[in-house]
Amino acid sequence: MPLVLGVDSSTQSTKAVLVDADDGTVVAHRTAPHPAGTEVDPRAWLAAFDDATSGLIDRAAAVAVGGQQHGLVALDGTGVPVRDALLWNDTRSAAAARDLIEEMGGAQACADAIGSVLVASFTATKLRWLRDNEPANAGRVAEVLLPHDYVSRHAARPGTPAFTDRGDASGTGYFATAEGAWRPDLAKAALGHEPALPAVVAPGAVAAHTVTDQVVAAGTGDNMGAALGLDLRPGDVLVSIGTSGVASTVSRSPIADGTGTVTGFADASGGFLPMVTTMNAAGILDLQAKWLGVDHDHLAMLAMQSRPGAGGVTFLPYYGGERTPNRPDATGTWTGLTTRTTRADLARAAFEAMLCALADAVDALLAAIPESPRRVLLVGGATRSPAVRALAPAILGRPVLLPPPGEYVALGAARQAAWALSGAATPPDWPLAGTETLDAAPQVAVRAAYAALRDSPSNPHLEHVEASVRSAPK
Ligand SMILES: Nc1ncnc2c1ncn2[C@@H]1O[C@H](COP(=O)(O)OP(=O)(O)O)[C@@H](O)[C@H]1O
Ligand SMILES: O=C(CO)[C@@H](O)[C@H](O)COP(=O)(O)O
């Protein structure tokens, strides 16, 4: 029974799971926190990797790292970061995204080239921001990595050249996703000169070895890792509620959505991963709990004391700007507050707003793919909340499958490690037992109230970016 180690270097923490390669049983797990913020010294992720994998990695025959997508780890000629990494949820490069889209010939041309329409999350936009705002730093950039590439190389023997996979590469903005090849010309256009890019390792292949000769697999983006961990099939929709809110599915063919709502990523097993991402998800609950001075259990209890519609309170949860819809400069907008509004209503409104944004994401995803929906699965840190579990099927308007509590990105990375270790053509079959079905009557009125506010012409952030994308040349 060989053991394999899967790691999720996600936005808020590193999670490591040690897994039996034969059947996917988790035998041990550890986590280590990351610094907060949208700009982080990437060496903190290496320290968190060392901490979370300590005592586990020595027991593993193979290891793989899943990581938060996008982001910019810019290294100088000696491999030292030229500045702190910019994360996927840092919106300072929104204008750079608009410029690059225009230079590529408009939104549809951009989607045709890379599979997605650029938003501030994508690495290419951060390279352009660096070129325009920190030219001295930009000039020192010799190599550009994604967060998971940087951590994977740390796991490998010193001197190993950097490597990545097509899943995470598809979120850079300089990777032709349908063809599976870098577009170094696009990286050069963004940065001003051509940086070294990591080798793209095939799904299931051995990418490198550790200093003690353990196999290191390619690793991937966290959402691709979750799809692998849950063995997602076409028609399955995975809703993940972590720092980001994500609705994703796997598909055999690429998409190119010129509206920018659905990003057309590659997955970690040779197919594609159409996906809709919101920037504000579990953090909405964190903030609401802080404002009300309660913990998460109390917040959930309060929310369940209110009624559907939260006593008329509705809000747009765009606290950190938003990506879907594309409103990077937006802020939160609360409506419907009266003298009758209670603390319970305020708590309830937070769950409803978070889930309405995710329901929009699911609808947009389903509208963009040819497959009819098979199953909707729910994962991520916020599923620990009983109120999320109670309200998700009601707001999503369909039954939701809740896999047993687990770190599914890390599990997917472990499955990739086991795949590379086996040398087989396909990943090992790991059964998923104990999935619970959540069901509730759909709350159509709650979604209608949210949609009315989201699309209200009086919303100060509505026109700005969406209009600029619409008017980009075809
Ligand atoms: N009981 C809970 N109720 C609501 N939210 C929770 C609970 N436990 C954890 N969370 C939230 O889950 C989030 C972390 O989820 P996770 O999927 O690990 O995020 P990421 O992968 O982005 O690092 C945090 O924002 C945290 O507050
Ligand atoms: O930007 C995206 C997807 O495009 C995010 O989903 C990041 O990949 C971060 O994920 P979490 O840390 O929230 O899981």
Q: According to CATH, what is the topology of the largest domain?
A: Nucleotidyltransferase, domain 5
State the helicity in percent bands: 25-40%
The top-level CATH class of the largest domain is Alpha Beta
What compounds sit in this structure? adenosine-5'-diphosphate, 5-O-phosphono-D-xylulose
Low-confidence runs:
463-474
What is the CATH superfamily classification of the largest domain? ATPase, nucleotide binding domain
How does the major sheet shape up? 7 strands, mixed
Radius of gyration: 21 Å
User: Count of helices?
Assistant: 16
Mean pLDDT equals: 96
What's the number of extended β-strand segments? 24
Taking the alpha carbons of the first and last residues, their distance comes to 55 Å
Provide a concise account of the structure shown:
This protein has 474 residues and is α+β, with helices and mostly antiparallel strands. The chain is 35% helix and 20% strand.
Account of the protein in words:
The chain is an alpha+beta fold and 474 residues long. The chain folds into 2 domains: 3-231, ATPase, nucleotide binding domain (Nucleotidyltransferase, domain 5), CATH 3.30.420.40; 282-402 and 443-470, Nucleotidyltransferase, domain 5 (2-Layer Sandwich). It is 35% helix and 20% strand. It contains 16 helices and 24 strands. The chain has helices spanning 43-53, 94-103, 107-114, 123-133, 135-140, 147-155, 166-169, 184-191, 222-229, 282-292, 296-305, 343-368, 386-396, 408-422, 444-454, 462-470, and strands spanning 3-9, 13-20, 26-33, 39-40, 62-67, 73-75, 85-86, 143-145, 163-164, 175-176, 181-182, 199-200, 206-209, 215-217, 220-221, 236-241, 245-248, 263-266, 272-278, 314-316, 333-335, 375-379, 400-402, 436-438. Strands 1, 2, 3, 5, 13, 14 and 15 form a 7-stranded mixed sheet that branches. Strands 18-19-17-16-22 form a 5-stranded mixed sheet, with helices on both faces. α11 (296-305) packs across α12 (343-368) and α12 (343-368) packs across α13 (386-396). The longest helix is centred in the C-terminal third of the chain and has 26 residues, at 343-368. It is globular, with a radius of gyration of 21 Å. The relative contact order is 0.14. Mean pLDDT is 96; it is low at 463-474. It binds adenosine-5'-diphosphate and 5-O-phosphono-D-xylulose. Adenosine-5'-diphosphate (ADP) is lined by residues 10-13, 242-243, 282-283, 285-286, 296, 380-382, 384-385.
